């Protein structure tokens, strides 16, 4: 039996497979389908200081090889999440990553302060890349100085490692990654969704009520691979890769690109058992390509051999 | 909930653009009236939520309308189909006579509901709305079950001219307990007339199991409800439509 474990700041992952934030709620629905303890970790749905209803519907539109979403960070607020969601997650032997969002820098700090004394949360994922909110989110994630500043504030407030989830909707992701690293980030998560739109031919108007949404699914995988590849060579902090993963081969591709672990997002909607399947398949796929551990495969695409 | 590569027993057109598919599946044992299943239609990405029309011992019947490329592709499916479910809460079985109100592709889930209420010894009246006579389906099947069936067509080519609501008035249907599924204007009209009963909603969904918050509606206090998990069936006055 191959040892799939991966050690990252704050996270002892038994395998490198983590359901992505926003695609897995707080685990309850998927816990009806399989034992969450088999997962390396779970990136739980974004927390903001107060409850957010999110955007009007329709919030979902299908696209070739993927989907657009414009949920808009709907959540009950950090206090409710601490009271109602974290105790449920505590029963599972998996690493919980809290995705932190907000409209202002202070929001991020407030959520982190409240989660600091929650032992079930092992690390933070700073969401400065949500394309579906008017304030905060992507606004902070597309400019190196703003991204660095919110990272610095988050690091000062945080009692746990901070991973920063970056937006692909930028001219130069490497520049932002380096700025965030310099500001003290312990790791990076890339990529969030690509901003997109669909138009309903009957009405001639955008299909989503929010007009634009975030594109996810297999369609964005090559973009994510390229960005992980570029960033991994420019920074010295670990990367969690995310974007369009549907199978163990995709995971290996992300590892080769320079990711140390991965998050699986939209595919959970298509195949609710995709994470257990990938975990089951990963050893044989790694073996087939000559690796004895996930770590061996990390960054092979740019390593001298 | 089960995910299964199930066997298609039949897939045929009932009336123009309305298709019926029978699927041999283990899900049949778990399913309740008013629930739905999620269907994979390669190469399309997201599963399609489709309501369960009839529950048999080891098969489910769905009825779908060809509305786009995905449902068109479904008409070509012959051998197997990847399904996941059953999902949602379904129509509650209450100890009383009911009026079922349906419009268009909202009609199919009412069939199994009728079957079960009739089995429990209750009187079932059914009011269905369609655009034209040639779009009517399930009238005879519901009559064969033992329901009293009333039809409305928008163009007046069959039954009462107008909507299902017009047929309720024209037929002087008095029972105040209504279970309904159909287009939003119909559900809104029912909400202004009735206090008792249930409405089944339709929504664009992604996960179908309550995780992604793609299909939310608001209740009358402004709290959010997930159509896929908290619904699709809600009590008559619960949701702000």
Automatic annotation (TrEMBL), chain A:
The record's annotation in HAMAP family points to: DHO_dh_type1
InterPro entries listed in its UniProt record: Aldolase_TIM, DHO_dehydrogenase, DHOD_1B, Dihydroorotate_DH_1, Dihydroorotate_DH_1_2, Dihydroorotate_DH_cat, Dihydroorotate_DH_CS, Dihydroorotate_DH_I
Protein name (record): Dihydroorotate dehydrogenase
Cell compartment(s), UniProt: Cytoplasm
Q: Which GO terms describe its biological process?
A: 'de novo' pyrimidine nucleobase biosynthetic process; 'de novo' UMP biosynthetic process
**GO CC, any one term:** cytoplasm
Family of this protein: Belongs to the dihydroorotate dehydrogenase family. Type 1 subfamily.
The prosthetic group or cofactor this protein requires is: FMN
List the source organism. Faecalicoccus acidiformans
Q: Which reaction does it catalyse?
A: (S)-dihydroorotate + NAD(+) = orotate + NADH + H(+); (S)-dihydroorotate + A = orotate + AH2
Automatic annotation (TrEMBL), chain B:
Cofactor(s) listed: [2Fe-2S] cluster; FAD
Q: Where is the Oxidoreductase FAD/NAD(P)-binding domain?
A: 100-191
Q: Dihydroorotate dehydrogenase electron transfer subunit iron-sulphur cluster binding domain spans which residues?
A: 202-239
The alphabetized UniProt keywords are:
2Fe-2S, Electron transport, FAD, Flavoprotein, Iron, Iron-sulfur, Metal-binding, Pyrimidine biosynthesis, Transport
Cofactor: how and how many bound: Binds 1 [2Fe-2S] cluster per subunit.
Residues annotated as binding [2Fe-2S] cluster are 207, 212, 215, 228
Biological processes annotated in GO: 'de novo' UMP biosynthetic process
* Ligand binding (FAD): 48-51, 70-71
Q: In which pathway does this enzyme or protein participate?
A: Pyrimidine metabolism; UMP biosynthesis via de novo pathway; orotate from (S)-dihydroorotate (NAD(+) route): step 1/1
Tell me the InterPro entries matching this sequence.
Answer: Cyt_c3_hydrogenase_gsu, Dihydroorotate_DH_ele_sf, Dihydroorotate_DH_Fe-S-bd, Dihydroorotate_DHASE_ETsu, FNR_nucleotide-bd, OxRdtase_FAD/NAD-bd, PyrK_electron_transfer, Riboflavin_synthase-like_b-brl
Task: Identify the domain of life.
Answer: Bacteria
Q: Which GO terms describe its molecular function?
A: 2 iron, 2 sulfur cluster binding; electron transfer activity; flavin adenine dinucleotide binding; metal ion binding; oxidoreductase activity
Q: Does the keyword Ubl conjugation apply?
A: no
User: Which family would the database say this protein is a member of?
Assistant: Belongs to the PyrK family.
Query: What HAMAP family does this protein's entry cite?
Result: DHODB_Fe_S_bind
Task: Describe its partners and assembly state.
Answer: Heterotetramer of 2 PyrK and 2 PyrD type B subunits.
Q: Name the job this protein performs.
A: Responsible for channeling the electrons from the oxidation of dihydroorotate from the FMN redox center in the PyrD type B subunit to the ultimate electron acceptor NAD(+).
Name the record gives this protein: Dihydroorotate dehydrogenase B (NAD(+)), electron transfer subunit
Lineage runs: Bacteria, Bacillati, Bacillota, Erysipelotrichia, Erysipelotrichales
Q: List the gene name.
A: pyrK
């Amino acid at each position: 039996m191959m040892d799939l474990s991966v050690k990252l700041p704050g996270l002892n992952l038994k395998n490198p497979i983590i359901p992505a934030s926003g695609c897995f709620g707080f685990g309850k629905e998927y816990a009806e389908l399989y034992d969450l303890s088999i997962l390396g970790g779970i990136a739980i749905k974004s927390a903001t200081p107060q409850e957010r209803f999110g955007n009007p519907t329709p919030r979902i539109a299908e696209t070739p090889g993927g989907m657009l979403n414009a949920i808009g960070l709907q959540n009950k607020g950090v206090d409710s999440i601490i009271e109602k969601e974290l105790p449920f997650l505590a029963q599972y032997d998996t690493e919980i990553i809290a995705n932190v969002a907000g409209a202002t820098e202070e929001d991020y700090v407030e959520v982190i302060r409240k989660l600091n004394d929650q032992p079930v949360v092992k690390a933070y994922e700073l969401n400065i890349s949500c394309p579906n909110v008017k304030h905060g989110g992507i606004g902070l994630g597309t400019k190196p100085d703003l991204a660095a500043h919110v990272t610095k504030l988050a690091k000062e407030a945080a009692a746990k490692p901070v991973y920063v989830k970056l937006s692909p909707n930028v001219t130069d992701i490497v520049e932002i990654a380096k700025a965030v690293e310099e500001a003290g980030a312990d790791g990076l998560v890339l990529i969030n969704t690509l901003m997109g739109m669909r138009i309903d031919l009957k009405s001639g108007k955008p299909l989503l009520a929010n007009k634009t949404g975030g594109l996810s699914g297999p369609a964005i995988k090559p973009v994510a691979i390229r960005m992980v590849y570029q960033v991994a060579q420019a920074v010295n902090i670990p990367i969690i890769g995310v974007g369009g993963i549907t199978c163990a081969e995709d995971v290996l591709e992300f590892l080769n690109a320079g990711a140390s672990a991965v998050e699986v997002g939209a595919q959970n909607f298509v195949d609710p058992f995709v994470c257990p399947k990938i975990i089951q398949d990963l050893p044989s796929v790694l073996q087939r390509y000559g690796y004895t551990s996930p770590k061996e495969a990390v960054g092979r695409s740019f390593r001298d051999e | 909930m089960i995910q299964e590569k199930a066997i298609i027993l039949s897939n045929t057109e009932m009336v123009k653009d309305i298709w019926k598919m029978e699927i041999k599946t283990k899900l049949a044992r778990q399913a309740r009236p008013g629930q739905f299943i999620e269907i994979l239609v390669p190469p399309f990405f997201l599963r399609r939520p489709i309501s369960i029309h009839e529950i048999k011992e080891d098969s489910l019947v769905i009825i779908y309308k060809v509305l786009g490329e995905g449902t068109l592709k479904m008409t070509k499916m012959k051998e197997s189909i990847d399904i996941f479910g059953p999902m949602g809460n379904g129509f509650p079985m209450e100890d009383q006579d009911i009026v079922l109100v349906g419009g268009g592709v909202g009609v199919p889930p009412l069939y199994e509901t009728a079957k079960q209420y009739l089995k429990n010894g209750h009187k079932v009246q059914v009011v269905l709305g369609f655009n034209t006579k040639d779009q009517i389906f399930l009238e005879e099947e519901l009559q064969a079950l033992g329901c009293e069936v009333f039809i409305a067509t928008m163009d007046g080519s069959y039954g009462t001219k107008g909507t299902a609501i017009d047929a309720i008035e024209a037929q002087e249907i008095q029972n105040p307990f209504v279970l309904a599924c159909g287009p939003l204007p119909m559900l809104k009209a029912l909400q202004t007339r009735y206090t008792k009963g249930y409405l089944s909603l339709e929504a664009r969904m992604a996960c179908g199991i309550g995780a992604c918050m793609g299909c939310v509606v608001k209740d009358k206090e402004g709290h959010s409800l997930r159509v896929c998990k908290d619904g699709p069936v809600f009590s008559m006055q619960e949701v702000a439509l």
